[in-house]
């Protein structure tokens, strides 16, 4: 090989002369061989370039999805049928989408915000562009009874304007039929029908399993009816818990029947529910025909036949496809018709889901997050009053107290505070209601559960089964306590129980002071007992019946607002990325790719919801947390949606739990 030489000035090749490479170390190696370090380096470079290309591709795909998948409020809304395709559950506040779970296919349960559905129906009632409303309930998995009643009332407003409302499902359940009953036409697939179960059912008790594993649940509680911890103490439900559960479940059932009978008076609902099997036998083992005979539905037909019927009313999108009707999706209608904001602003702060310490995303009520929303509202000079919208079974006492203190700070600025209870406002959900000037609830609201508890597991028996023992020294009776390996001693048990009893005394004292009742009377209705809204009003736990609009109106009146007013929500707005993931993970899918339908499909989805409740049960035992003011039984009356994030617990029990890690 020759070395590279400079090109002479008069060289005819000039600057286009081809340079000659200088020889490098290793050039004497056989052609085609590469050193091992160079191979590794080339591999790393290739991986880096590949990852860069993948992330670049994902970025552009995400950007496209962001702009193409979101509803565009600037687009004109054509005339047609408002399509409420309720695939999943309705909630007060959809949880933030977990990106990792969504990308891995873990977010399979869509959540639809109740106020969006209600607002869409109320605006559609008087808008000439909406010629009918379609309730697609084929994959509807329900929601709280208060939420369903609110949707039903909004449907009644549409029908009051002489607009047809048509419902379709393969199989109607208790929840979906409560909504469908308000429609002017109820359709069912011939292979489906109506099956009404009503509230109730079984739950899991873990005492037998824990005994076999040798796990000891050290439980500290106050309240005869505080049944949240019974699954870890017993193998069955206590008589006191059954008594309380039957009382409020019976009240909810009576309200459900009253709602359905009022909406659909011609339905033979009582005999059908009393002997559904007999009705099916009389119809030749055909549930759909039995449902038709009982006037629970109006027409049996396929989805294509149903769509053709809608097209007769609202027009066909394509004349060559008479089953393809002019549909206006819920998201597009809501985007194109935002709520009006006349007059003064009334702050609405949602408290949705389990109350936890620290910050938390939507769908979970982080104490610090909610408190900051309240303080932000109080610091806004345009806010005239605050309405706390509660749909929570409770949770951390310290987080509940943090929210209560924020409300007291708002009241110190002379801002009226009104609480509006949705489906559930129990335990910690009631703790945060105590500063309110007025408390609104519905007859279907589940509230009360004034009691507290703490749980710390220990594993001395588990280790003993494996032949492992513990020993050590102590300088005080509390040295090494709580000892989850050797067992919790009496001194610690007394200290923990005293802590729980002290918090319970604070809880009942807050209720007595806020409700202006003698402490002895509050103690009688406390004890962790759960009450339906109707009974809660009779015993003084709530002031009056009414929904969120009633609470906002009352707050405006207390603030002496002269003229119009509107609600301004103080809550975390989902990120653009979360909205995009929501559209990718079920909201924008074709019907064939969405949730399963029919009886077996509903059973499959209910199984997943039960699995989530089991996880919630076990997490109560295993996760670090503070003393709890939580109603575990109340969770059965809320959708079992995944908890989107965790916050760090605080307090006495949390510190002990951290020591156990």
> How many angstroms separate the termini?
68 Å
Query: Please, how many helices?
Result: 24
Query: What would CATH call the homologous superfamily of the domain at 344-595 and 617-659?
Result: 2-enoyl-CoA Hydratase, Chain A, domain 1
- The CATH architecture of the domain at 344-595 and 617-659 can be named as Alpha-Beta Complex
> Hey, roughly how much beta strand do the residues contain?
15-25%
- Structural class by secondary-structure content: alpha/beta
Q: Look at the structure and give the mean pLDDT.
A: 84
Number of β-strand runs: 25
- pLDDT < 50 stretches: 1-20, 66-75, 585-594, 652-661
Shape annotation:
globular
Please name the CATH topology of the domain at 344-595 and 617-659: 2-enoyl-CoA Hydratase, Chain A, domain 1
Instruction: Specify the helix fraction band.
Output: 40-55%
Largest sheet: 8 strands, mixed
CATH class assignment of the domain at 344-595 and 617-659:
Alpha Beta
Rg calculated over all Cα atoms: 31 Å
What does this structure look like?
- The protein has 661 residues and is α/β, with parallel strands linked by helices.
- β10 and β11 form a beta hairpin.
Key phrases:
disordered C terminus, 2-enoyl-CoA Hydratase, Chain A, domain 1, 8-stranded mixed sheet, 661 residues, alpha/beta, 6-stranded parallel sheet, 43% helix
